[in-house]
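ok trying again, last paste got cut off:
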Amino acid sequence: MLVTKSVCSTMDGLAMIDTFLYTDEPAMAAGLRELLSGAPDVRLGHHCDNLGALKATLGKIQPDLLLLDVTPEVTVRTIYEVRECAPECRIVLWVRTVTKELAFQAIEHGVRGILRKNATVDNLLKCLRVVAQDGMWLEDGLAPALHDVAAIKLSFREGQLVSLLACGMKNKEAATALGLSEGTVKVYLAKLFKKLGVKDRFELAIHGLRNLADAEGRLQTGLHGEAGEEDAAPAPAPCLRSMVVPRPSSSEFAVNHRYNAA
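nice, full thing came through this time. structure:
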């Protein structure tokens, strides 16, 4: 696993880590509560099984750490909203599987740990302790995988357009949804092809799907983006703030770098 802050060798002097669990599986919650009851420095203070009530509850309690079970309803937008209502709360995603794209998008939105559900009890406790100390926890294999991809920032409008293409929209439909002309959409697409190193809108849509899909391969919507000066009035569409694509080879880097840095 990747740990960016070492774990203290002794538990003396460490404050109790108040952990909040979101999961819709009661047995899992009960099992975790029992497990943590034997830890001297970690306790499961609260459990929520309703995603709709999660934000309000977090806003009132303001726990140290949220262990977020990635159920079908959880998206990157969920992470953004949690960060808004509990900005000091550290987030650990509890996942069965995770893609490189989902891992990157989650980290970009403030997640401090990604823990698999088949992790050992020892690793679960280590993860919670490391993240509570402002460290980062990524399991073996995930960190090297993230080094094999390139993260390319998108403007607000670019992010919206990629998201709409990933949803299957044609140029004319995307133009209508964004309040743009079809010609302007084509100009954006030409820039995106160069920026991301893709050949056509089909390849662009495939990369968009991979970045918008959650751990189970479902398409996410409602992602948050930030409008820049070039994008005055954001349209009501989902948006990616960045794209994760395979890292270009050394021969391609010189050509693509100037677009990625733009």
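cool. The two ends are 33 Å apart (CA to CA). The domain at 2-147 is CATH 3.40.50.2300 (Rossmann fold).
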